[in-house]
Amino acid sequence: MSLKRQLFLASLLMLLIPWAGLKFVLELDDALRQQALQQLQERGKRMANLAGDRLLGQPAITTPNALYASPAETPIKPDGHADDWPGYDEPDHLQPWQSAEPLPVPGAPYLRWQAASDGRHLFLLVQMQNQAMQLFQQNRPDQPHDRFELVLQPPVTDLQQPVPRQRWTLRTSAPGSVNAIREDRQQTPDYRVQGAWRDRGSGWQLELQMPQPARGSLLGFQVTQGGQESSVPGTGIEPPPPLVQRIPELERALADQLGDGQQVTVVEPAGWIVAHHRHPATGQGPDFDDLSPVQVLEKITLNALRALIRLYQPEPTPLGEATHRLITGGLPDNHLVRRNDGSVWLATEHDLFGGRSLVLEQSLDQLLTVSGSALGSVLARSLLIILALTLVLLGYASWLSWRIARLQRLVSASVDEDGRILSPVPSARTRDELGQLQQHFSQMVERLQSYNHYLESFSRRLSHELKTPVAVVRSSLENLAHNSSEQERQQYLERAAGATERLRRILNSMSEAARLEQSFDQADKEQFDLSEVVAQATAAYQQLDADHQIRYQIPEAECPLMGSPEMLVQMLDKLVDNARDFTPEGGTIEVSLQRHSDHYQLCVFNEGSQLPEHAGVDIFGAFVSQRQGQSEGHLGQGLLIVRLIADYHGGYVEARNTREGGIDGVSFRVIIPVYRPETGSTL
């Protein structure tokens, strides 16, 4: 699997954050619903007691046949046009119409009405459909005409005698304003009851205004045509139905008890709503046009949370809502209900005296707003961060893949199929792990290139070293076969023996390191003074080499060491021989031994040419030599033996270009740990 896919799968694991957030929101929503239900029940009990006190002494309405008067929030002018009635701009099916027949017969006369009250006056809006308007003719009163009859029965109290009914009749000889006639007062006009009658083509419309009846009154009407012969069902006048109105005092008292996103409804036994108030939800926030991109994402996330929560929530039960009526039929066990507008509420119902009930509801959107606004913001920002991190990781993975592929191409281009180094790998500009890897590849290719050059030169040197003694042996044998003189034959035999001895030395030199490693297993270590061994060996070098100036410095104190003095002398011989080869005639070779707190430092410095800055290979490796054009058999084993002997004594060797006493040269330093005789161990 590619690195890009691995990082992509790793970034997908961050999706566990919103999943865990969703699980938390669901659990939080359930806990909040239970807590909100308990609070609703406690608040509902208090509000039920308050409503019961306010309704004390008022008769309960048990009949479904009633005239309901909605509160008029704006002034109504009885001009017959009805453009100032509540809900006039709404679609027809959303307006609060009442009728005696819920399902009208197509083509048959159909009467519907609305009632409203502003506290001083009662307004009636009556529409007749599928029946043309028939006017009253003054000269022909017996002709069929439309007549509107209105009956009012004031409430009866214990302190007074029953109040007689009030009856009004309205008819018009032309569309327009109309006044009522008081039938119980000898057909006298009553200018308090007035309105306007308008022709609507296939029907008519009557808008009426009258003084506000007392609470508990009975009010009914009916429409007749041609006397009592033809009538259209209205509310009825024998007996008139009760007039049902909202109670402002009760609504104001209940409004003070509501919290954000709650609504309360008080209904009569027949379902008529006598009090209703809704407290708007808080935290609506700015308009959509004023939102920032992050806030838009938060809104989208919050809406998605609402949809998911509703998906996992129990199914709400629809409420039996009708015009100005609410029939609960008992709330479900989960207390979740759905209104006709699609909103979902958490509801509790509390019984009042006389069969009345109080329904208190809490908006689930408000609960989610409280619980999910902050969490929705967190989830929205988490999604945004996850998306950004995913893109960053994919981009980073693509960049890493490109760098790895580029490094692969560079390495492949530097080596051909036969293993030859074609070109070096360029150094990396970055300092991260891939940059270090490219740097290591570059160094490795350089070392391989140098090592390949060494192998090629080694084969040439080995061929050169073997060619001369082999040629001597071959020519000696050929001359030996063609000469009969004993003296000449002896001369050729000596030349062949000398060449053979040279071949033996070359072969011994090639296997010297292997024999040395085998001798390590059989060698016995002994305690000796390193300074004395170095002093004796250096003194011998001075006597045997008159072409160079060999100087040495050793400490006055003893330098005890546990090891093999013969091997250390052999190591020093290799270092001094190597120094002679690179030191010009008359040059200086310095041998020094220094004692430090935890190690000895044996240093051999030679004047002359320096090591190349980038040798490419380890000069202490097998068959490695920096000599060029040497005639003797230097096969690169000397410094390898030096490294092996240093390793045997627990130390190491290093070489570097240096300048001592104003002279440039090369310094080989052997670091050997100090031996403690009192403890029998090295540091």
UniProtKB/TrEMBL annotation:
Annotated source species: Marinobacter shengliensis
Residues that span the membrane, as ranges: 378-399
GO terms of molecular function: ATP binding
Predominant subcellular localization, coarse grouping: membrane
Protein name per Swiss-Prot or TrEMBL: histidine kinase
Pfam families: HATPase_c (PF02518), HisKA (PF00512)
E.C. code: 2.7.13.3
Domain Histidine kinase: 461-676
Catalyzed reactions: ATP + protein L-histidine = ADP + protein N-phospho-L-histidine
SUPFAM superfamilies the UniProt entry points to: ATPase domain of HSP90 chaperone/DNA topoisomerase II/histidine kinase, CBD9-like, Homodimeric domain of signal transducing histidine kinase
InterPro entries named among the record's database cross-references: HAMP_dom, HATPase_C_sf, HATPase_dom, His_kinase_dom, HisK_dim/P_dom, HisK_dim/P_sf, TCS_sensor_his_kinase
Record's subcellular location: Membrane
Enzyme class: transferase
Entry annotated with the keyword Transmembrane: yes
